[in-house]
TrEMBL record:
<dbReference type="InterPro" id="IPR027791">
    <property type="entry name" value="Galactosyl_T_C"/>
</dbReference>
<keyword id="KW-0328">Glycosyltransferase</keyword>
<comment type="pathway">
    <text>Cell wall biogenesis; cell wall polysaccharide biosynthesis.</text>
</comment>
<protein>
    <submittedName>
        <fullName>Glycosyltransferase family 2 protein</fullName>
    </submittedName>
</protein>
<keyword id="KW-0808">Transferase</keyword>
<dbReference type="Pfam" id="PF02709">
    <property type="entry name" value="Glyco_transf_7C"/>
</dbReference>
<feature type="domain" description="Galactosyltransferase C-terminal">
    <location>
        <begin position="168"/>
        <end position="208"/>
    </location>
</feature>
<comment type="similarity">
    <text>Belongs to the glycosyltransferase 2 family.</text>
</comment>
<dbReference type="InterPro" id="IPR029044">
    <property type="entry name" value="Nucleotide-diphossugar_trans"/>
</dbReference>
Length: 285
């Protein structure tokens, strides 16, 4: 049997993390290991929930402080591999695990260890006062329409790398090492997922979707476009353009431009125009 580790990076969202841990424990087989990486969150370390901790990063050129999401995922993978993990499952802190998520990913990786697998994610409505009924998540199954959503038991190989997202994915230890992990030049929100999808293909691997590995994203407030991440998105979009020669997150960038928040320079890169719209990241419970 393969040793399976689930890796979750967290900054706040402690209630969401507790829900995720409950779903992982409730459905068999449970993962052999759950590596929680605390990003600038000492409480998770002090409570013994997180085994790995990374600090927020203050960018020298702007003084803006941001969370190192890419580096945190890589740190979690190193910890899992050091404890013998053969299958790495990355699950966003907001995601509850469907009952077949761990087994579905494990079986897909066993069949095709050269594929980096993703699973359908349903965005849940706000939780009732008593919280989500974790025993009835499957009744709310309604995967995000912007991503592939194969049926349970169905596998799709050769997926579009631009549709990769890190909310929920899995790969073999060898595949992870082949990719080299996430590019840690990305700091803060946006861009590193699309970059990783490109890295997978450049490494000679492929991307796939497995319908068995279903996850359920717990509700939290969002904005569209995510103006609170304006600095991160513009900075990371410029990095992506340097690395790959084209834009990532183009729809957001164009909406920022329409609102007068950002503009494209003559060389194709982007710049922030209205600094007063920036809002720092902040922890939520």
């Amino acid at each position: 049997m393969s040793r399976v580790a689930v890796i979750t990076v967290a900054h706040g969202r402690h209630t969401h993390l507790a829900g995720q841990r409950a779903t992982l424990a409730a459905c068999g087989p449970a993962p052999d290991d759950h590596v929680v990486v605390a990003m600038d969150d000492s409480e998770l370390v002090e409570r013994g929930v997180a085994r790995v901790s990374v600090d927020a990063v203050t960018l020298a050129d702007s003084g803006v402080t941001a969370l190192p999401l890419a580096a945190a995922r890589n740190a979690g993978a190193r910890e899992a591999l050091a404890h013998g993990a053969e299958v790495l499952v990355f699950l966003d802190v907001d995601c509850l695990a469907g009952c077949d998520l761990v087994s579905g990913y494990t079986e897909a990786v066993r069949m095709r260890p050269d594929v980096v697998w993703s699973g359908p994610v349903t965005y849940l409505p706000p939780a009732p006062v008593a919280g989500y009924d974790l025993d009835r998540l499957a009744e709310m199954d309604d995967p995000h329409p912007a991503r592939p959503a194969p049926a349970p038991g169905e596998l799709v190989v050769g997926a579009d790398p631009d549709l990769f997202w890190s909310l929920s994915f899995a790969c073999s230890a060898d595949a992870w090492r082949t990719t080299g992990g996430f590019c840690e030049d990305y700091v803060g929100y946006g861009g590193e997922d699309t970059d990783f999808g490109r890295l997978v293909e450049r490494s000679g691997l492929t991307l796939g979707w497995t319908g068995a590995a279903r996850a359920y994203h717990q509700w939290h407030p969002v904005s569209a476009p995510p103006v609170e991440h304006l600095d991160d998105i513009v900075r990371n979009a410029n990095l992506f353009r340097e690395r790959w020669g084209e834009d990532a997150m183009e729809a957001w960038l164009l909406e920022f431009a329409r609102r007068g928040l950002a503009a494209r320079r003559a060389d194709g890169s982007w710049q922030v125009l209205q600094s007063e719209t920036r809002r720092p990241w902040r922890r939520s419970a």
